[in-house]
Amino acid sequence: YALYPQITNPTPSKFKAGEAGARLFSVSLAEQQSALDGSFRYPLLIGKWDDVNQMFCFVNPFSTLRFTVKAPAGETLTLRKVQVTGRNGEMMWGDATISANSDFATVDAVAVVNKNQNVKAVLDCQGMTVTDEGRDVYICIPAQEYAKGLSISFICDEGNMTKDLKVAGITTKQNQLVTVPALPLDELDDS
């Protein structure tokens, strides 16, 4: 097994890359991720050696949200951050344990260990320019049920806005790309 990015200075409580028979991975899910232009950066990939193909096969133990943000017609906005929260207080980052099953077809649930951790995932968009043509934005979140849906907040130089995805019982899966309908940033306030 292997993790990417590799855990440096592993301790006995952490998974050690290459350890035979390892099934438990202790990791920390970062509160903040960084946006990449037209893509995204996985916070963590977990892989198992495939003897047949002689290579590691990696999967994303999280879900990835993809949504298109659009500025009002004829306008340009500067997007600084995106914040995603579960509308029922679901954990979005912190210390977690990943348990890999024996055939590694899937990765078992990511369980947040410390319930005092944060309930908000943050994407640093680094001043991303958004036009009325739209721009895709990606953020990784824990794979779980979001009982009351998700709330997505946008922080722009020109103001802030929150969009609620109120669909009850949104369930995301590991290694899954979830596409959210286009979100027009047309209701910015100056708070």
Secondary-structure blueprint of this entry?
Blueprint: E1 2-4, E2 24-29, E3 32-34, E4 45-50, E5 55-59, E6 63-70, E7 77-86, E8 94-100, E9 107-112, E10 120-130, E11 135-141, E12 145-146, E13 150-156, E14 159-165, E15 170-171, E16 176-184
How would you characterize this protein structure?
The chain has a five-stranded mixed β-sheet with strand order 3-10-7-13-14, with no helix packed on it. The chain has strands at 2-4, 24-29, 32-34, 45-50, 55-59, 63-70, 77-86, 94-100, 107-112, 120-130, 135-141, 145-146, 150-156, 159-165, 170-171, 176-184. It is built from no helices and 16 strands. The protein is globular, with a radius of gyration of 18 Å. The protein has 191 residues and is an all-beta fold. A hairpin with a 4-residue loop joins β4 and β5 (55-59).
What is the gist of this entry?
With 191 residues, the protein is mainly beta.
| Helix count from the secondary structure assignment | 0
Taken as a percent bin, the fraction of beta residues is over 45%
- Helix coverage percent: under 10%
User: Termini, distance in Å?
Assistant: 47 Å
The biggest beta sheet reads: 5 strands, mixed
Order of helices and strands: EEEEEEEEEEEEEEEE
Q: Using DSSP, what is the number of strands?
A: 16
Please state the overall shape, judged from the principal axes of the Cα atoms: globular
Overall pLDDT confidence: 75
In the sheet with the most strands, the strands line up as 3-10-7-13-14
CA-based gyration radius = 18 Å
Low-pLDDT stretches are 9-18, 102-109
Structural class: mainly beta
